Amino acid sequence: MTALLEIKDLVVEFSTPGGTIRAANAVSYDVNPGEIVAVVGESGSGKSVTALSILRLIPDPPGRVCGGEILFQGENLLQYNEEQIRQVRGRRIGMIFQEPMTSLNPVLSIGRQMTEAMRLHLGLTAAQADAKAIDLLKLVGISDPESRLKAYPHHLSGGMRQRVMIAMALSCDPPLIIADEPTTALDVTIQAQILELMKDLCRRLGVALVIITHNLGIVARYADRVNVMYAGRVVERGGAREIYRRPSHPYTIGLLNSVPRLDRPRGSPLDPIPGNPPDLTLLPSGCAFQPRCTHCTAHCAAEAPALLPLGQEHWSACFESEGLYGVAAK
């Protein structure tokens, strides 16, 4: 199968008073048509920076893409001029941002914000755009959609605002949607509803979805494949079932162990990853995770491990992966 999106060795740097930060360091992953791919990691791991780079939304300065390729439907988006990339945003790739209250314009009605892209990219009249907006709001489960078009973001709950963002991302029928922390500000019940909705829409409409999150537990039942990022690199990737059944990087195992589980005795403490996420201006030599790793050896401090295959569709960047492969998280 030909990949819909293919990121190859992407490098993104930011200039700061403390030095140059390489937020994405030779990041590579792909997304197939109709597939749900998760990108997981702590804050500062580079997952959102990579996603924003796809649509060239990195502010320059201080950030810049300084290496790699982003191939979408066989074309390198990094070679597009400003007019060409504007035609991609919304029309060919939809984006759901982290916090809908700050992503939606507070002084424009929901209808105005939903129909603008449809009129621009699809050439619809005002009446046609309104009719499609109503259909989209019905599709994402919002009742009384006609009146919602006249409402403003502050009139809606957090879950409803997120549904509006999903409807906006679908409005121009893009083959790919990127959801950047789509459930961060929502309670767990609404999180499940939003994720079920997104999965159902992807399956029904054949849309590929990239979910960016810090929580491996959220994507356990929704993703087809998972990419785990740490300090700007992909440290483990593979099929979701394989990653959860046989995690093979100490960071992935740590993320899984820090998620509450129903099969543990009541009152059992969580097992957090020791230490703090790294300062990207002061990364240690060798493996970036070694200061926090309980499996660290002298080899880890001397050399950064490459992402190497362990099994079919399973890759890990750890010198100890062979020994960890097949060892389940606690």
Q: What distinguishing features does this structure have?
A:
single chain; 330 residues; alpha/beta; Rossmann fold; 8-stranded mixed β-sheet; 4-stranded antiparallel β-sheet; 12 strands; globular; cell membrane; ABC_transporter-like_ATP-bd; ABC transporter ATP-binding protein; nucleotide-binding
Describe this structure in words.
With 330 residues, this protein is of the alpha/beta class. The chain has a domain at 1-35 and 46-92 and 214-263 and 286-330: 3-Layer(aba) Sandwich (Rossmann fold). It is 31% helix and 23% strand. The protein has twelve helices and twelve strands. The mean pLDDT is 89.
Task: Break the fold down into its secondary structure elements and pairings.
Layout: E1 5-16, E2 19-31, E3 36-40, H1 47-54, E4 63-72, E5 75-76, H2 82-88, E6 93-96, H3 100-103, H4 110-121, H5 126-139, H6 145-148, H7 158-170, E7 176-180, H8 188-205, E8 208-213, E9 225-230, E10 233-239, H9 240-245, H10 250-257, H11 298-302, E11 308-311, E12 314-316, H12 321-324
Parallel strand pairs: 3-8, 3-9, 6-7, 7-8
Antiparallel strand pairs: 1-2, 1-4, 4-5, 9-10, 10-12, 11-12
Q: Please tell me the CATH architecture of the domain at 1-35 and 46-92 and 214-263 and 286-330 by its name.
A: 3-Layer(aba) Sandwich
**CATH topology call of the domain at 1-35 and 46-92 and 214-263 and 286-330:** Rossmann fold
Rg over CA atoms: 21 Å
Give the overall average pLDDT.
Answer: 89
What's the helix count?
A: 12
The overall strand count is: 12
Output the CATH homologous superfamily of the domain at 1-35 and 46-92 and 214-263 and 286-330: P-loop containing nucleotide triphosphate hydrolases
Quote the beta fraction. 15-25%
Strand order of the largest sheet: 6-7-8-3-9-10-12-11
Membrane topology: Peripheral membrane protein
Keywords: ATP-binding, Cell membrane, Membrane, Nucleotide-binding, Transport
Family: Belongs to the ABC transporter superfamily.
GO molecular function, one term: ATP binding
